[in-house]
Amino acid sequence: MHRRLLAVAAVAALAVPALAVTPAAADISHPTVVSADPVDWTPHVLDGTVWSLALVGDTVVVGGAFTKVADSTRRTTYARKNIFAFGLQDGRIRTFAPEVDGAVYALAPGPDHSIYMGGAFKTVNGNDQRGLTRVSLLDGGRYPGFAAKVNWGDVRALVSRGEKVYAGGTFSAISGVQRVGLARLDAYTGAVDPAFDARLAGPGLKRTRVEHFDVSPDGRKLIAVGAFLKSGGADRTQIALFDTSGPRAVLSNWYTDAFKPTCMKGFDTYLRQVKFSPDGSYIVVAATGRASSAQKLCDAAARFETRGSGAQEPTWVQRTGGDSLYAVAITGPAVYLGGHQRWFDNPYGTDGNGPGPGAVSRPGIGAVNPNTGKALEWNPTRSRGVGVRTFLTTANGLLVGSDTDQLGREFHGRLGMFPLR
C-alpha cells in the first residue's frame, strides 16, 4: 500500500514559526484526485466532533467540540478543549491552546500569524467575547483590539479576505449593530462594516440564520445558504448570491427556486454547506432533509453555475437516496462530498428500502465528477456516524474532519488527510 509514514514518537510541543497567511481553501486546485490512502502522521481527536479546519502557513488549526487529542502514535495525549493546532508536514501538535468555553464551529486565517474563531463560546481566555474572536498562533493570546461579539446564538462560518472578515450564523446583532445572520467586519478591530447588510429575513420561520456561506476566490461574490426566505424585499429561499466587489452587499439577480420544495417537516433549511469552485465559475451545495425525491433536492448535492443571471436550474444533482450530506470541497478534478450517506448515484433509492438501480457504495465520503455529478471511483470509506463536517483543501492534499475514527479503513480519530498521489 501507498504509505507516507513519518516516525513521530513522543511528540514535542512546538511553537508556531513566523509565516504568512495562506490563501483560502477555495483558491486551491489539484492536478489529480487525491489518494484513497490517508497519511499516517496526522494526530487524533479522541472525543466529540471536528467542525472546522483552517491553514495558516504550515499550521493546521482544528476547531470543534472535544477535550482530548493524541499524537499520531496515540502514545501521548494532550488536553485540548475545542481548539488545537498541528504541523501540516509532520503532524506535530503545537503548544497553541487558547481557552474557549464552547464549541468552535468556524475558523479563518488572520493577519500576523493569527486565527479568527467563531462558534458557540461565550468567553475566550477568561474574557467575555461571545461567538467571535481573534487569537495569536504564537501563544494563543487573544487580541483585545478585535472586540466583535454576537448578541446571542453562534457563528457557523467565517471567511477572511484581505482586510475584511465575513461571519455567518444565528446571531441578529454584532457588537450592538443589527445584522441578521451575516456580517462583514474589519480584520483588525472587528468593527461591523456599516455599508454591508444582506438584510436577510425569514417570515414565518422560527429563526433566521445563515447555515454556511463562501466567498469567491476573487472576493467579488458571496453565496449564502440557510434559514431565510428574503433578502431585502426580494424572494431568496434558502440561498442568495451577493456582489461583494463594492462597499455594499448587493443582491444579485441570480436566483434559484430549486430549494422552495420542502423536505421532511421540521427543516427550516435543509442546506448545510456551499463552496465555490477554484475558478469561481460554479458552486456546489450539500443538503440533508430526510426526504428522497426525484423532484426535490433533499439529501443531495447540486451544482449551479454562477456566471449567469436570472432563474437558475442545477447543472447536475447527485442523490444519496435518503442520507444527509454535510460537507463539500471542490479541487478541479473532483467534488468531494461527506455526510453519513451509504450510496451515490441513487436517485431511485430510499432510506428505508436500500439502494436503487445504478447506486454505488460510498459510505461516509466520496467524490463526483465536477462536470457530470456522477460518482468517481475514489472510495476510501469511513465509519459514517453523523457525518463529515468539514474539508480543508491544501496543496498537499485533502483534510477531513468528522465525528468518527475510521477513515480509509484505518484508525484516524475524527481527523485525517488524503495526500495527492
From TrEMBL:
<feature type="signal peptide">
    <location>
        <begin position="1"/>
        <end position="20"/>
    </location>
</feature>
<protein>
    <recommendedName>
        <fullName>WD40-like Beta Propeller Repeat</fullName>
    </recommendedName>
</protein>
<dbReference type="InterPro" id="IPR013431">
    <property type="entry name" value="Delta_60_rpt"/>
</dbReference>
<dbReference type="Pfam" id="PF17164">
    <property type="entry name" value="DUF5122"/>
</dbReference>
<dbReference type="InterPro" id="IPR015943">
    <property type="entry name" value="WD40/YVTN_repeat-like_dom_sf"/>
</dbReference>
<keyword id="KW-0732">Signal</keyword>
